[in-house]
Specification:
Elements lengths: L1 E14 L4 E3 L4 E2 L3 E18 L6 E4 L2 E2 L2 H17 L5 E9 L9 H15 L6 H11 L11 E5 L8 E4 L9 E6 L10 H11 L3 H21 L2 H20 L10 H15 L4 E5 L5 E6 H11 L8 E5 L5 E2 L9
Parallel strand pairs: 5-7
Antiparallel strand pairs: 1-4, 1-14, 2-3, 4-7, 4-8, 5-6, 8-9, 10-12, 10-13, 11-12
The structure holds ligand DP6.
The site of ligand DP6 has 13 residues, from α4.
Length: 332
């Protein structure tokens, strides 16, 4: 048997990945830029064993059914094909999130799985190769290989589409992200389905794509210059444009709930009160607020009038993937 273990942290995109050019290879329409966080991570152990007759997937100790295992099985099949392995595998994942608040992310999950496979099979992949492999599981996972800021270069092929760390002089250590949990339900429209529908039907999609280069340039310059206002403004504007595309899809949809709008309004109000902070959202109603660490306590205090402490979860910048090969790689 061959076993390996890895830990990967989730990341939140400041400039979003929204749409695929190639659904099979998971090649995106546009580059994206993210911040890896320390508060939410996945630890995954994978065991390839010749006695297994099928793949199995345990999440937080509970065996998952076929539907929940589909993404994992597809990924394992890819690993088997790519690295000439014939054994089935058992995947044991644990999500470390501060509450059971639906914050489990496919980014940390698939990145950890890619790392665990690399460790188990002694593949010795570089970060770039790991990023490419994780991308095949879930696009955003390719960014979780790296700590701090990362940019996913969309590339034009499997070989050229991967994330890279953005050199930032550790500025990300001055930043924090506050999650405002307004809903812990299962998503109505998954990010995978939502972006597909948007690419195929939204008349606003072309507008989204045409704004990406300028947004990325602004974000990277803001990081280079440690300009929080510029980074926050482009983060918020980019998220609004991404969410705008869903309104013009057919059928139209939105990830926003009334509570999401309340949080957005409170963020604007906080800014008016002299507290710089900016929101972003992904494929669900929870809102994430980018804030400087020095202002985090004040922001929490401001929001505490509207939300319970369980609804307010903060994170700092987090590290890249850690392979834990010492647990495994035994052969028998
Ligand atoms: C809105 O990476 O979950 O969070 O590649 O289909 O697995 P698949 O999608 P996924 O999409 C994430 C979309 C997003 C924006 C982002 O993280 O960049």
């Amino acid at each position: 048997m061959y076993t390996g273990k890895a830990r990967a942290y989730t990341n939140i995109a400041l400039i979003k990945y929204w749409g695929k050019k190639d659904e099979h290879l998971i090649l995106p329409m546009n580059n994206s830029l993210s911040l890896t966080l320390d508060a939410f991570y996945t630890e995954t152990t994978v065991e390839f064993n010749k006695s297994f007759t099928e793949d199995s997937f345990f999440l937080d100790g509970i065996k998952q059914d076929q539907k929940q295992t589909a993404k994992i099985t597809a990924f394992l099949a890819l690993v088997r094909q790519q690295y000439q392995v014939s054994l089935f595998a058992k995947v044991d994942s644990r999500n470390f999130v501060p509450t059971a608040a639906g914050l489990a992310s496919s980014a940390s999950g698939l990145a950890a799985l890619a790392g665990a496979c690399s460790a188990a099979l002694n593949l010795g992949l570089t970060d770039k190769e790991l990023s490419r492999l994780a991308r095949r599981g879930s696009g955003s996972a390719c960014r979780s290989i790296f700590g701090g800021f990362a940019e996913w270069q969309k590339g034009a092929s499997d070989q050229t589409s991967f994330a890279e760390a953005i050199v930032s002089d550790n500025w990300e250590q001055d930043l924090a992200m506050l999650f405002v949990l307004v809903d812990d339900g299962i998503k109505d429209v998954s990010s995978r389905d939502g972006m597909k529908r948007t690419v195929e039907t939204s008349s606003f999609y072309a507008g989204w794509l045409s704004s990406i280069d300028a947004d990325l340039k602004t974000a990277k310059q803001a990081i280079a210059e440690k300009d929080f206002t510029a980074l926050g403004e482009v983060t918020e504007a980019n998220a609004l444009r991404m969410h705008g595309t869903t309104l013009a899809a057919n059928p139209p949809f939105t990830y926003w709930s009334p509570e999401s709008l309340t949080v957005m309004q409170l963020v604007r109000q906080a800014r008016q009160n002299g507290l710089p902070c900016y929101f972003t959202m992904d494929a669900g109603p929870n809102v994430k607020i980018l804030v400087e660490k020095k202002n985090l306590a004040a922001l929490k205090q401001f929001l505490a009038h509207h939300f319970s402490s369980e609804q307010l979860i903060s994170a700092n910048a987090g590290p890249g993937i850690t392979l834990l090969p010492e647990e495994g790689s035994e052969k028998s």
